[in-house]
Structure prediction request, 209 residues.
Amino acid sequence: MLVLVKPTGLLAVPGRGEDKQDCLSHRAQAEWPDALVVHRLDMSTSGLVVMARGIEAQRALSRAFEQRLVHKRYLAVVEGRLVNPQPDNGWNTIDLPLAVDWVNRPRSKVCHETGKPSLTRWRLAQPASQTPEVHAGISTRVELEPVTGRTHQLRLHLQALGHPIVGDALYADLAKQALAPRLLLHAEALEVPHPATGQMLRFHSPCPF
Prediction:
């Protein structure tokens, strides 16, 4: 298996069109031809991505994701002062179903009628400090753990709380987008069972903001 750190602005997998072929998976396959995709990050999100070395490893890692044996933690900076109602900064849960917003693709939306179950855990990051790239207004640094893995789940769930992620070109208004040069969302921690041995491995990527 491979564990890679994707920079913001780089696609995880190729998109449509010749101008969208440069991506993390193609770069990895240029060095490791047997590298296969297991999961992905949004183009604007940075951080840890795991790829499989060969089809058997891909099957094993895909099963681990399906069985929720893989644990991911993200760091984000959100707009406004987000207060944790739990004592001792305990984990909170956002449980809102999500569906593709076909009229406004590539956006998704909260949809109680047809959305798929989506669950996110959040708490304040320690230490809670304001990122240097947020030049105006009040912001809050938070830790996020997606239990499910829906498209744009973290971005939509925080928007639904009334605290969109700073720099989000899809779900924040123009003023909030302008507060940072990128989406302030980073996949900083990954715990995954080794596809051959099952041993739990832990990886960490320092947050760049």
